[in-house]
């Protein structure tokens, strides 16, 4: 599913298009989408398609369309410190974005059916932690992934504040999904061809909202073991952070406050984001998309309301841009202020690198 917005040249332009089409509506969700490059979760030979608003599948690896992830993130109403369970966690792309919002005191668990995809997600998570400057801009709740069928979660597992299922849920499994949710929690899942938001308002009270029509591959039913018993999935334990880890979180938080205050004193308005250079706006086209899900084909024709833009307006925007943008201008690479500050501290190198989570850059 997808094709609701035009493709971007890079991750930022994709997010610009999702904002313009009102799929991304909140600042927290926008920040999370911009912080993690969607292309990093593609195999190298398919990265040219990363910024299209289309689902992608290769073998067992699957990514939903950006417009779907946008609606999911908005519907979950994420806040720092919440617990999140991702059923069908896949590449870990969604779980990592969620982790940027949950912060260091949240809980971030994922269940994935295929062991090779679980391993792929762990590799992508490690790459993000080691190399992305976004890791230092946020307080991250690192996802934990386990392999198993999400319909076989152990009945003694903890309930969660937020739950998302990334596969089509049959009506007979609706109550099972609800049982995973705390009172006051939110469940988002594809139910009967509709992306559905269910809020648990009491021990046996629910509010249901249909968000949009979707087409997802259905949940795979559990297979019994040779003994005839199901294989229960044990979710990661709710770990208690060590004093050493808590000290690292507190020190990094204090340094960030110092950096912010220094910037306020210097220019009066805090740290500024590296400016994104204005790109020529491309006229939105009527899109036809065909998405393959395993052996099924889902086809959709989606028109964009901005098809009515006049060519004169577009030409005027193009001339304005050419007049104001130097031909060879390139954005300056972002500065990792936290890293620079930590490395300048009069501390032993092992402690500096511990504060930086032993990251490469």
TrEMBL record:
Residues 303-312 have a biased composition (Polar residues). Residues 303-336 are annotated as: Disordered. Gene3D superfamilies: Vaccinia Virus protein VP39. Coiled coil: none annotated. Transmembrane segments: none annotated. GO terms for molecular function: protein-L-isoaspartate (D-aspartate) O-methyltransferase activity. GO terms for cellular component: cytoplasm. InterPro entries: PCMT (IPR000682), SAM-dependent_MTases_sf (IPR029063). Pfam families: PCMT. Belongs to the methyltransferase superfamily. L-isoaspartyl/D-aspartyl protein methyltransferase family. PANTHER family: PROTEIN-L-ISOASPARTATE O-METHYLTRANSFERASE (PTHR11579), PROTEIN-L-ISOASPARTATE O-METHYLTRANSFERASE DOMAIN-CONTAINING PROTEIN 2 (PTHR11579:SF2). This is Protein-L-isoaspartate O-methyltransferase domain-containing protein 2 isoform X2. It comes from Bos indicus (Zebu). The lineage of its organism: Eukaryota, Metazoa, Chordata, Craniata, Vertebrata.
